[in-house]
Amino acid sequence: xxxxxxxxxxxxxxxxxxxxxxxxxxxxxxxxxxxxxxxxxxxxxxxxxxxxxxxxxxxxxxxxxxxxxxxxxxxxxxxxxxxxxxxxxxxxxxxxxxxxxxxxxxxxxxxxxxxxxxxxxxxxxxxxxxxxxxxxxxxxxxxxxxxxxxxxxxxxxxxxxxxxxxxxxxxxxxxxxxxxxxxxxxxxxxxxxxxxxxxxxxxxxxxxxxxxxxxxxxxxxxxxxxxxxxxxxxxxxxxxxxxxxxxxxxxxxxxxxxxxxxxxxxxxxxxxxxxxxxxxxxxxxxxxxxxxxxxxxxxxxxxxxxxxxxxxxxxxxxxxxxxxxxxxxxxxxxxxxxxxxxxxxxxxxxxxxxxxxxxxxxxxxxxxxxxxxxxxxxxxxxxxxxxxxxxxxxxxxxxxxxxxxxxxxxxxxxxxxxxxxxxxxx
Length: 426
Prior knowledge:
- The protein has helices at residues 13-22, 41-44, 60-70, 81-89, 103-110, 112-119, 159-168, 220-232, 265-268, 274-282, 331-342, 357-363, 398-408, and strands at residues 3-8, 28-33, 47-49, 75-78, 97-98, 128-129, 140-144, 154-156, 172-176, 182-189, 195-207, 210-217, 237-245, 251-257, 298-299, 314-317, 324-325, 328-329, 346-351, 372-375, 391-394, 412-413.
- It folds into four domains: 3-100, Rossmann fold (3-Layer(aba) Sandwich); 108-112 and 179-293, D-amino Acid Aminotransferase, Chain A, domain 1, CATH 3.30.470.20; 127-176, 2-Layer Sandwich (Dna Ligase, domain 1), CATH 3.30.1490; 314-421, HAD superfamily/HAD-like (Rossmann fold, 3-Layer(aba) Sandwich).
- The chain contains 13 helices and 22 strands.
- With 426 residues, it is α/β, with parallel strands linked by helices.
């Protein structure tokens, strides 16, 4: 039976990874919501619900339950650390399954000082200093007790700097500075408390606290430390922890998070879909893990998504240097055209190609894509063959686009502008 799954807040990197992990599952109808009006989730979630109160507001609980009732939500997937903690505490009052471990685990992991106290003697933790006067060696690292994404972190190189920063932000922890490589260990614990998966990846490049260049690293210590953390805390579902090396190469704990990480996409693409495993486990379904054996590396950057108010029913598209570019299919354009197929729109190929167009289409396996193929003479104008009014025109030639725009008064697109036509909700 298909399950309705709500991701909240859906516009975080966590929520976007959950979307990528679950969007194609035939077992799931995915919903997204947020308390923030401007968020990326509304660009990718097909079922998007606006204006849910923040978890810090009294109105949150009745409103989330109203949403759960309205859309028959079976499972809620928290996608932010504070939301995870709040929903784990309110679990018995939320009228849906909440994917979160025990609230005490969430509380400990949300506060780095509490994390280090809980893990002291279990795994190596960083040395903490109560004040600038306790520091014997600089630099030191300053970070908020409660926070994410490297917000508020600071390297302090002198006693005066430490006094200045801690005076300005009272909740800063003063920890030893760790100069070595940094790792994330992605994990999965099932409902019986068994650690089913634990593998590391190096955080090679980090932006705003997010790992944007990462690759698998095999180290037996990762599994050992994962087992120890799993024994100390009541984990369930996907979770991760981060470690960094001291100058002497010893691994030291940075943080533990009992939730999905955005860069879990790395192992998802090796066959370990941790959000999906978490969902099935939350539904008390036994799961199996099967990992592909190949080398992989993930690199992330900002991507563009657009909302446009353009309505059209027909697409006229050129062949040479448009649909075929450097003798290869334009991947972005072909994706858009198949999106149009899904949406029952008409597609007309319009070309001045002098050769055997039918052969080219068969050779590139797209012969059945078009409602019609319009072949023009070399001197014939394309605007004269465009008859539909609610249409768009795609061509690499500026002269052709300008003339069609003038004569037919329809929107025209270069191949560089196809991305605004792609609907990531579909």
